[in-house]
Amino acid sequence: MGVMYYKRFRMELDLRKLVAPKWDLPAGYSLVSWQEDLLWDHAEVKYHSFRTESDANVFPCLGDRQGCLSLMSEISRKESFLPGATWLARYDTSHSRKWEYCGTIQGIQDAGIGSIQNLGVIPEHRNQRLGTFLLFKSLAAFRDYGLLRAQLEVTARNAGAIRLYERIGFTKLRAVYKIVEVSHA
Ligand SMILES: CC(C)(COP(=O)(O)OP(=O)(O)OC[C@H]1O[C@@H](n2cnc3c(N)ncnc32)[C@H](O)[C@@H]1OP(=O)(O)O)[C@@H](O)C(=O)NCCC(=O)NCCS
User: Is the pTM for the entire model greater than 0.90?
Assistant: First the structure.
């Protein structure tokens, strides 16, 4: 057994400076608020968003279907869980009456600070600002809960996610290191 150190940034946002996106969701997309019977759907979207990403090495549960279900269940049972800051993105095709969930975000409250958990958009639906919308929705809910600050952690190599967070107003607070046990073949 050995260990790997993954550098991550803790980022912070002053919720009083939160500005709404100046555009609408693309056609066919909508956001769905948390209900307990959506737990499985959040877990599935989480799994499909993270399973091939480097964060699945940092948090192996993200690369595993059952792991995502357990994680989602654990988050939603926390006393600090904020249902209003927890959203799914949904895509409806106008012609075939098919629909699917394609993005997820969850929020909890940690010592009076809103904490973003696992923002994920499944690959086929990326680059349409869904991630930005989900994040904004969750942050606006933090503000409505009366919180003044939001925080999140992101793996330092995840440049795309960092750009998204910086565009919405997050700044890097400090670097933290996640230690992950690895077995050598
Ligand atoms: C990070 C993640 C959530 C972003 O989701 P997304 O829906 O693609 O995000 P957005 O569309 O809001 O923004 C992404 C990019 O698309 C661009 N974009 C979005 N809509 C656009 C449009 N209409 N025209 C031009 N560019 C657009 C954004 O400017 C941004 O560009 P960038 O490459 O410079 O960052 C997604 O990539 C993901 O799930 N990754 C894997 C999981 C992960 O790492 N999550 C973060 C954990 S901390």
Answer: yes
